[in-house]
Amino acid sequence: MTNPASKVSASFPAEKPERTRAPLFLVKRGFKLRWLRDSDLGWLRDLYASTRVDEMRSVPWDAQTKRRFLDQQFDLQHAHFVGHFSDSEFLAVELAPGKPIGRYYVRRSDPMHIIDIALLPEYRQRGIGTALIEHTLAEARARQCSVLLHVVKANKRAAKLYQGLGFTVQGDAGLHWEMRCPP
C-alpha cells in the first residue's frame, strides 16, 4: 500500500548492536529489538499511516490521496528524526525475525529522550509500549537522569499512560505536551 514514488533521502545512522537489548517482559513473550535499516522504510510508512487512521477518517479525500499525504508526512518526519536525532537509537520491535510490529526511537542523553514509539494496531494495549518505557526509565534511574518525551495533546490515552508511569506535563509545544519523568 506504500507509495513507490515516495523517496526518503535521510538514512538511518550506523547500527549499534550493543544497544538492542529488549526488556525481559518482551523477551519472555518472544519479542526482540533490532536496529532499523533503510530497507525497513516500506513497513515503517505503513506503521505511520496506522497511527493516523482516526485523524484521517474525517478528511474528505479518496484513499489514494490520503495515502500520498501520509507518505509525504512520514518522509518529513523521518528526515526530521534522523537529521535532528542522529545520535539516537532507531529500533524495530519484532515478534520474530522478519516480523516487525513497531518502532522505538530513544536518545540516551541527559535527559534521556523517548523520541517516538509506535506499534501496529493489533499489538497496542498489550503492555509492549509500557515495557519499553519502563526499561528506559530504569536505565535513567540508574544513570540519575530524567526522561523527556512529547505527546500529541489529542492522544489522551498515551498521555494517561505516561502520567501513570510518572511523567508530568512540563510545557506546551503547540500540538504537543512536553512531559518529563524525574530520576
Provide a quick synopsis of the model:
By secondary structure, the chain is an alpha+beta fold.
Protein described:
This protein is an alpha+beta fold and 183 residues long. It has a single domain, classed as Aminopeptidase (3-Layer(aba) Sandwich), CATH 3.40.630.30. 36% of the residues lie in helices and 26% in strands. It contains six helices and seven strands; from the N terminus they run αβαααβββαβαββ. A seven-stranded mixed sheet has the order 1-2-3-4-5-7-6, with helices on both faces. α2 crosses α4. It is globular, with a radius of gyration of 16 Å. The model has no long low-confidence stretch (mean pLDDT 92).
**Mind telling me which CATH architecture this is?**
3-Layer(aba) Sandwich
SSE sequence, one letter per element:
HEHHHEEEHEHEE
Strand order of the largest sheet: 1-2-3-4-5-7-6
Structural class: alpha+beta
